[in-house]
Amino acid sequence: MEKLKKLLLYAGAEPEDFARCQMDVQIANRRRLTAFLGTACAFFVALTLGSCMVPLLYDHIPVFAAALIVSLGLLAVEQMLPQKLGLFLNWEIYAFGAMVYGLGIFLGTVQTPDQRATAFFAFLLCVPMLFMMRPILHIANVLLFDGIFLVCVTRFKDWRVIPMDVCNALVFGAISCIVSTFVMSMMYGNFITSSKLTTVAESDLNTRLHNRNAYENRLRDYPLRCSNSLTCIYIDVNGDKMLRTVACILREIFGEEDSYRIGGDEFVAFALDSTDTELNENMEQFVRQVEEAGYSVAVGTASHSAGGIDIDALVKKAEKRMYLDKSRHYEQLRRGTEE
Prior knowledge:
alpha+beta, four-stranded antiparallel β-sheet
């Protein structure tokens, strides 16, 4: 029973591994959604225009036109989605699946009451393979739309084709549930393996922060992730034991996701959409905790409002201010020694 629960809820993976790869899964799902919506728009344009030229397909023109409008609307909404996707992306995916299933149901029942349905069963097998989700969600979608199809069959279809359509709906629905579950298990397995390899490649073993590889891979994303402002915090320290202490404090205050060790004694952290008050409080807390641990750090910060952020210039500005802070520190030490 526990294995079945893990298979349906986490695609056979451990819950923590499943949660760890969710960001990568969302990014992949968004890319797929953009590609599929663009393809659907082009496909429905071709079908609408083609139907206008074939008298036998005149009745299908409103259906294809409606599907085209829905696809264009979903594509427009998708382009406006924030970088932090979450629930918005899932609803877009559900809406896309509902449109495809709905089209298959309408064509297979209302439009062709005296013929066996074909398109819906093809969609029933294909749609669950398009996006990565918990298997239980794919199964719920298949059962929902398979049930709607069966209701429409009994309501609109000729009695002579009802038995075959009902039989096909039950068979293809069961196949879709089984196949999609195991396909999701394999796809998530690949993502989890890739995520673990990326974690090893992008982690600093000494401080357990993201390393230079992660910093360079993610740096260009920061201007897109902020809504109000972006602040770069550039830090310089010395000594291995001190490195681990500073890394721990940095992770605690600015979060593990946006903190990096980018060199032997240099750290960078990013604060997204922080107010000046919040930023000052965090910086004071950081410096205070480092000093309480018996160390000192040179820190430079640079902020920019969202929109048109030159991330390289922002980092350089923070780095320059860090060196100025470092120079002041050594100057104070020199004066103290002379006195």
